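PROTEIN DESIGN WORKSHEET
SECTION A - STRUCTURE
LENGTH: 215
TOKENS:
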């Protein structure tokens, strides 16, 4: 069962909004579990569930890796036959580098870019990006608070977000791995969120951690 936007725009919008609310609740549960069980709790089943929640009654193939070629703007993601392997490699990189603290937003930046690059789902991939998935699991164990969240800040400045993706894509095509722009971008958004926090002690802790990691 699904609703097409062109047939009933109002109903489509309502279902989409309700899906996002359900997905947010589900992602919050995933973060709680991740904080208790560690990064091993983050796997493909988590993403499948989040994808399904995002597109229920809108797309009939939610929660499954895509089985068709797609194009996202000027980017052509990997062939659908390679999606499963690419996602296995994605989870492996996240798990193996979970305790490496070169910079607090390096791993989230990498995860955001890589999910965009693979684009594992035909519909609903966008709902997995930002701090609803791996990046949020990474930062949630360290930092909390703020009035305006990182996802909202991303939506308010999409141009910089996409420019960082493009820079990482170009580096990858040239045989390099470079998410420097995205790392700095996420750092600025995270600092902005913490600046909004009523308790400034959390911001001081964040700044202290950044200074320590960058020294």
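SECTION B - SEQUENCE
RESIDUE ASSIGNMENT:
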């Amino acid at each position: 069962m699904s609703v097409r936007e062109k047939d009933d725009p109002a109903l489509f919008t309502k279902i989409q909004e309700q899906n996002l609310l359900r997905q947010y609740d589900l992602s919050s549960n995933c973060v709680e579990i991740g904080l208790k069980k560690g990064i091993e709790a983050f796997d493909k089943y988590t993403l499948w569930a989040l994808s399904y929640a995002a597109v229920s009654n809108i797309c009939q193939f939610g929660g499954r890796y895509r089985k068709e070629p797609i194009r996202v703007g000027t980017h052509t993601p990997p062939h659908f036959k390679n999606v499963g392997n690419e996602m296995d490699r994605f989870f492996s990189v996240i798990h193996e580098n979970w305790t490496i603290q070169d910079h607090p937003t390096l791993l989230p930046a990498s995860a955001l870019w890589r999910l965009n690059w693979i684009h594992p789902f035909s519909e609903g991939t966008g709902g997995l990006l930002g701090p609803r998935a791996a990046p949020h699991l990474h930062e949630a164990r360290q930092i909390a608070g703020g009035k305006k969240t990182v996802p909202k800040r991303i939506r308010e400045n999409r141009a910089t977000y996409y420019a960082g993706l493009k820079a990482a894509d170009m580096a990858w095509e040239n045989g390099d791995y470079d998410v420097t722009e995205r790392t700095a971008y996420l750092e600025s958004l995270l600092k902005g969120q913490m600046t909004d926090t009523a308790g400034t002690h959390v911001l001081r802790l964040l700044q202290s951690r950044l200074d320590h990691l960058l020294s």
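SECTION C - NOTES
Residues 130-144 have pLDDT under 50 and may be disordered.
The chain has one domain: 9-63+73-214.
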